[in-house]
Structure formats: structure tokens, C-alpha cells
Amino acid sequence: MEIGKPYKVTLAGELGVIESLLKVMLEKNMVDMVLGTEAKKNLANLKPTTIEKANDVGEMHMDAYLAFDFAKTDSSAKYIHKKMNGALTNKVGAFGRPCDLRALVELHKRRQVNLDNIILIGIEEYGRLDPKLMRKFFKKEGIDASNLTGVIMKQDKVIMELGNESREFPFGKTINIGRNCANCTSKTAMKSDITVNFLTGDPILTVNSKKGLDVIEQAGDYLSFKASSVDTSKLLQEIESKGRQRQLEEIQAFRDLPTEQKIKALGKCTMCGLCIRSCPVCFCVDCIIQKKRKEKAIDNFTYQLTRISHIADTCIQCGRCDSICPVNLPLNIYFNDIAMKLEEKYGYVAGRSLDENTPRSDVDGLKKRLNAR
User: Fold this and answer.
1) Are 200 and 233 in contact (CB under 8 A)?
2) Residue 13 predicted with pLDDT over 90
3) Residue 154: DSSP 8-state
4) Is 86:94 a contact under the CB 8 Å cutoff?
5) Phi and psi of 249, rounded to 5°?
6) Quick one: 83 and 224 in the same domain?
7) Which of 88, 136, 307, 309 has the most CB atoms less than 10 A away?
């Protein structure tokens, strides 16, 4: 197998591709622990978990992860950071979406995680289903989520296995990929050691590093590989292009609004704190606005504006603050607007590179800007 070339994967056992790779990491003592999933309630409510023994790696419901991601405020990046100590003292095997990988890049730059201690499996997919639409959708269709046994994501529909019944649901107003996933302009799993692409149905695997190659060379008992001619990069580029167009239209409409209207919209905020709890790049141990929120010493406008100014150049545009908001504030539009301006003016994109400093922390860049005045 060669680094950088795509391969079609064939399973040799009962475990899926991701599960097999994680099991190999533990079996061969490449890591101390791996990221897992558990479905205590149902497949639409997956929770992350830590697995330390190879024999404990079983069915992880990765089809459901592709469709729904982790529930509520959980994400791969946040769990690695908060519950696995950022791999600062242990070696970790993990998987994540492209936005998770971007978050880990930002956290690594701030010494919150150590990517050198993580073997990362990057997952390339269409995006997760809109969690707010899903709650209404299940109710409208009379679906008991506990009967869900499998999910298959397609570009224009989702197929759900409900007991002995298989039902197809075309994307539309009642069920669809989340807005921010649909607007995503970075579907490539950058900085991963192994990439597994699920866009064409059959998983296509690409090794991106020596760490990843070491895992693959030990995986013969579980997986076999054959060179693939499928050009997943072209499909990714098409999806990203459509996402960029949608994002541009959305941002332009937002920029056309009067400033007063943009600020006024934030008045709906109830200061529940879910946006902070779900943000994968929030890392302050003592969060001042959380403290002031609990003490009722801050108003909702200041709460949101402080958060926006604090996170703006670190935001990796995952949209979790947006999708978790109970009053449907389009929070990510505010962040996307600033992110686009940062890219236009400074060429900076959060999560893109380990070597790029944010404009606010780039001392040399700051000196140049000051001297140019």
C-alpha cells in the first residue's frame, strides 16, 4: 500500500472499517485507548466513550454516526480534549469529521491536545442530518427511534432500517442535511493519518502518514485492500463548490441587514450556555461569561457579542452552537461572516494549518499592519 493512493476496502470479519482500525491500534499496543460510541437510548442519540481493551471494540454504529453524529453537545474533538485529556499524557486512536479535525488543529496550536499522540481517522461524508428537523420528523412520520436498526446516507436521501422495514426519505423541508454541513466548504479530512471516504457507498481508504501506514500494515486479519479508480476528490470538490455558493448567498443576505437588526436578533438569547458547552474550540478553564451568566451579571447581548469576539478567529464552522440553540439563533452566520472577512483580508482559515497563527496572535503580522498605517 502506498501513502496518498485510494483503496477499496473489503471486510474480513464482522467489524466495520473504523472499528477494525481502532481494534488493531489497541491489539498492537499502538495506543493506550480509542474513541468509541455507545447507543444507550437509540441510534439517533449516540454518546462518545473510551475503550481501553481490544476485546471491547465491537459494533460502533458508524452508519448512525455518519447520519446523526454524537448527540447534543458532544463531538469527537470535544471528547478527545475534555475526556481523553487531549492525548497529552496517553496515546489515543480516534475518528472524526473534517470539522472535528479542524478543531483539533486549533486546540493543538493552543497546547490543549497533542496531535503527535493521536492516530486520527478522518471521515469524509455528506454531513449530518439536521438534529432539530429530526425531532419533528420522527414525530411526523410516527417513527419510534428505538426501532431504528440502521441508517444509510445518500447524496439526496436517507434510508432507515426500522426493524424488518426499510424506508427511504428524500431530502426536503422535513428532513435534510444540516444547514452548516450543506454550506461546508471544507469536506476534506485534512491532517488525518487515515481517511475513510463514504460518499460512494463502498468505503474508500487513503493512508496519509507513516502512523496511518503502520496501522494498515497490521490490519490484515480484519481488512483487505484493492487499488481504487474512484475519484472521490472530484465529488468532494463538487460538494464544496455548492456549499461555497450557498454560503456566499447566505452571508451576502446577512451583510445586507442593518447592524441594528443583527444586534437586535441576539436579544432572543436566553443565555442557557449550550453554545459554549457544545463549542469544540472553547477551552478556558474558568470561563468568565459562563461565570457572569450564572451570577446573572451579564445581559444576553453582551453575552453573545463577547463570545463572538472571543471565538471568531478560532471558529472552525462546525455549526454546533447553531444547531443546539433552543431559540434558533443563526449563530454560525455571525461566525461565518467574520471567518470570510479574515480569509479575504489576511488569508487565514481556522483549522487549516498547524503553522498558521490567528491574525490576533501573529506578532510579525501585527507589526507589519501597524507600520503600514
Assistant:
1) no
2) no
3) -
4) no
5) -65, -40
6) yes
7) 307
Domain boundary among 233, 268, 302: 233
As beta bridge partners, residue 36 has 49
In a domain, 92, yes or no: yes
Q: Which domain holds residue 69?
A: 6-233
Question: Could you tell me what percent of the chain has a pLDDT over 70?
Answer: 97
Asked whether residue 107 falls in the same domain as residue 229, the answer is yes
- Determine contact, residues 193/212, Cβ cutoff 8 Å: yes
User: Distance (Å, rounded) from C-alpha 177 to C-alpha 18?
Assistant: 22
Sheet with 6-11, side-by-side order of all strands = 47-51, 33-38, 92-96, 118-124, 194-197, 204-207, 6-11, 223-227
Give the pLDDT confidence of 23-32 residue by residue, as tens digits: 999 999 999 9
Per-residue confidence (pLDDT) for residue 286, from 0 to 100: 86
- Between helix 331-346 and helix 300-311 the angle, nearest 10°, is 30
On the question of pLDDT at 363 being above 70, the answer is no
| Type of residue found at 204 | I
Q: Is residue 242 part of a domain?
A: no
Task: Copy the grid coordinates of residue 71.
Answer: 448527540
- Confidence class for position 366, pLDDT limits 50, 70, 90: low
Domain total for the chain? 2
Distance CA 194, CA 197 (A): 10
pLDDT of residue 372: 63
**What is the 8-class DSSP label of residue 329?**
-
243 assigned to some structural domain: no
